[in-house]
Structure formats: structure tokens, C-alpha cells
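Weekly modeling sync, notes
Attendees: AB, CL, MP (scribe)

Item 1: holo prediction request
CL wants a bound-state model with iron/sulfur cluster before deciding which constructs to order. AB pointed out that an apo prediction alone won't tell us much about the pocket. Agreed to run with the ligand included and paste results into these notes for async review.

Input as submitted:
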Amino acid sequence: MTTSNPPQIVPNSGMGLYVHVPFCKTKCPYCDFNTYQGIENLIEPFLPAITSEITCWGDALAHPPVKSVFFGGGTPSYLPQGDIERILVAIQSSFQVDPAAEISIEANPGDLDEAACAGILNQGVNRLSIGVQSLDNDLLNLLGRRHQASEAVEAFQSARQAGFDNVNLDLMYGLPNQSMEQWQKTLSSLIELTPEHISLYALTIEEGTPMHRWAAEGKIPEPDSDLAADMYQHAREVLAEAGYHHYEISNWSLPGRACEHNLVYWENGPYLGVGPGAHSRLGDYRFWTVLSPRDYNTKAATWADSGVQPLADLVETALQGIPTLGGWEHLSLETTCSETMFLGLRLLDGLNLSEASAIAGTDLAKKFQTPIQECLNLGLLEQDGDCLKLTKQTYLVANQAFTRFLE
Ligand code: SF4
């Protein structure tokens, strides 16, 4: 690997690297991610495809620094044993990965016995994110999850026994038929496990999903937004009591355990996504890989054959020549400013206007003087010197503030 004359598409501070694994054993009825069940025949060719794409991007970007790696999906833990290590070897050979980089993987509880956890840890992963979703078996059944509540707890214990000291647990709330009592019980059982990080997501029923059809046909109740708000408020209280810092609208961590990779997104930093449908934000562009895993496998595996030259700059003509790309969007200064504001405001300690202005390349306090003042007058935001932040009552209706920063 040579590292001479890197173009400044990626700053010296590095970028995040996201690896999308599009396979799930079963497709959950609420999920609209680019993931598929029943395409196991594409798993074997996925490995040479993704390692080829990683190698080619490394060459194209002249092996830039990487500060975090995140395997998401889909179900990365559904890949055959050893594949994560092979992908990480390709990443290490193609990029300058910070030795202290956070390397996360999403996993389903059913895939995680102690041997599997040890295998993942030994492959170089240092942060595990487990999709618990609920600790109530009826709700897990409704969500179409393939694990039981006891398996989720056992998966966490296996992770600890294997040596993981940085674990996130995901939960969902605002579920059809979910009572406040069920939520309180799930949350307190989760807190007893003392994971380093907890993410809580309200169910949104997306169009085109089986759950959307069930709701339309009256087979399940529509989500109760008032009850969901009460569940969120309860979570805020008990997690604060348990010592968790609420650092992003949907995320809590023990001190020093915020998710480094997701901070790249919220700080509107640079990131590269590899794998089918993965999104990237580099230079002045947002671009994404072809959605179809079959097309992706073919295109990524042959990218190297077309010859990879380091990109002198990230411009449209350069993007057009990348075989795996499904599309791209040029980010105007207006878009960059808006996104820097509303992504940064998701961080509840607040947005530092000077630092955010440096990222956006313009004085954001001046540019957004009117919407900032409106939000302050309406009690949506509060300001302390250079720091602008959501007021507590705005956390669940943050879009009321964010939309004011859209041109
Ligand atoms: S396991 Fe996750 S990614 Fe896969 S279908 Fe279910 S929700 Fe979607």
C-alpha cells in the first residue's frame, strides 16, 4: 500500500467506513432497509465482490485514513464465520485504519452464542450492537424477530463472556399492542445488564411493508404517538437515573461510550459506504451503490478489471466511471449548511456554531440568523454562547426545528 500524495477528498482526520451486508435469514415485516431473505446463493460471491470494491476504493482515494468501521445491514452476523475477518483484512490493506478505531458490527441475538461472539471479537471487531428490540416474546413475535427474549439476554451474556467490553443494545418502542408496563419491564431488565450503549427507536410503519398493510386492514392498531411519547419520557428518566448520558435523540451511553461511527454522520463528516445500497458522503457529493445484491456482486467483482486510477478530484465525471455506483447527488452549499445544522442539532449537548461553520464552509450563525431566532422565540432551541441546542421538550418533535433550516 502506498500513501503518497493523497488527494484531499478525505481530510487527514479521516472518514467513517460503512459496510452494508444485505442478507437476513428472515425479513421482518416492518423493515424497509435494503435487505433480503432467501438469497443465500449470493452470499458466497458477496465476499470477493465486497473485498474488490474495498480494494478499488482504497486505490481510487489513495488509501486515506479511516477512523471508524461499521458493519450494518441486514445481518452481518449471518455471514459465514471468517468473512468479517477477510473483509477487515481488505479494509486494513486498502486504508490507513486508526489502530484505536471503533469497529462495530450489528448482530441478531439468535446468532450469538459464546463461540460466535469470541469468533467475531477475534476477527478484529471491538464493538457489538445487538438487535434486542424487545424483551417481550409476544412483541418479538409481532415484529417477526427470530429470537426469544431469553436468547437476547443470553446473547449479551455471551458477548461479555467472550470479552466484549463495548456493547450496544437496540430496543423499539411505540409498538402495536405494547403497554407502558411491558415497556417499563423491558427497559429495567435491559438496564440491569449495564450495556455501554442503548439505542431506542420508535416504530415507524413504512409504506410498502407487510406491517403497513396489516395496519391498513385493521389487523394491528395504528401506533399511539401519545403513548410512545410517554415511553420515551419514561426512558429518559430511568436511563438518567442509571447513569446513561442522553447524547443524541435516540441514543444513550455510559461516559465516553458514544458511538464514534454515528458521530461522523451527526457531525456531517465524510464517510464511504460499501456494499449494495450503501450511501457515501465525500467531497461535495452524496452517492450510493447499486441496490440489487446480484448486480452489485457482478459489478464490484469486475471493478478492478476496468483499472483503478487515484481520483484527482471527486467530480461527476469521476463518479460516472465507478461501476458499482447506483446514483449521486451534488451537495450545494445550501444543502451542506442545512444538513450540518439539523444533523448537529440531533446531538443533545448542542451544536458548536463555530465548529459547524468550519465544516459547512460558511458562517452558520449569520446564514441562519432568522430561523435560529425563530426557534429561540418558540422555545424549540436554547443558546449558550456559541452552543445551540434543542430544548428538552423538543426532542420528540425536533423536525419542527429542523425544517426551519431547510431552504
Ligand atoms: S433483521 Fe434487521 S435488517 Fe434484517 S429484516 Fe429484520 S429489521 Fe431488517
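Recorded for review: The first helix runs from residue 43 to 60.
Action items: CL to compare against the apo run; MP to circulate these notes.
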